[in-house]
Amino acid sequence: MSRAWIPNALTLGNLTCGFVSVILSGTGSSEGFKVAAVLILVAALLDGLDGQTARLLAVDSPVGKELDSLADCVAFGVAPGYLAYRTYLSGFHVTIAGLSIDFGALLAAIFPVCAAYRLARFNVKSTPHSFAGLPSPVAGVLVGLGILCFPHGSIPRPVFAVIFCLTALLMVSTIAYSKPQSVIFKSSSIFRLAALTVLIALLLLVFRFWVLLLALSAYVLSGLLGRLIQFIEDRRY
What we know:
Blueprint: H1 5-25, H2 30-56, H3 62-89, E1 93-96, E2 99-102, H4 103-124, E3 130-132, H5 136-149, H6 157-171, E4 176-178, H7 180-184, H8 190-207, H9 210-236
């Protein structure tokens, strides 16, 4: 029996987490929002394991690659976009030519649109040592962590909207971001992957979500800082 079902099952678990996250966001309850955000984090964990598992088992395939992108679009595009809409962006209306437009829905739609384009671009053009643009799992997890650390009403809606849109646009930018997993998983075995998964779970249990939010924020800033340094160097010569 082919072992390809193992990484594919992880990928489908990723998609399932994204789908259930959307359903829970639709409940409109604070607990539903929390669980929806946590499911985006779980989806990211599964997304980090499926590709590495496929390579370790030597069963990576074009089908798995396409399936991974479809799952990511749901878990890190649609799910965080809808969660952001339900928590911060709903009711954000503007009047144009006498018509009330749900501007919040348009802002929320930016996220799945950017995620879909980012994933499509990655499938046709990618480099082995860096990402072009912020990876969609990182962007989706940032939204989830933002909701967990700053529940509805904790920060002004315009501030959230600006950060949300900038995060989405970073996905389709050409800013280079490193691939830390290429170092972490370079010579890892299945047992090391399992140990890393347990370690991440323990860190979440002990430090909750603030440490993750700070770590990913630092990752985002590293790309921006690298682009700024490159811009300054290009102007010097």
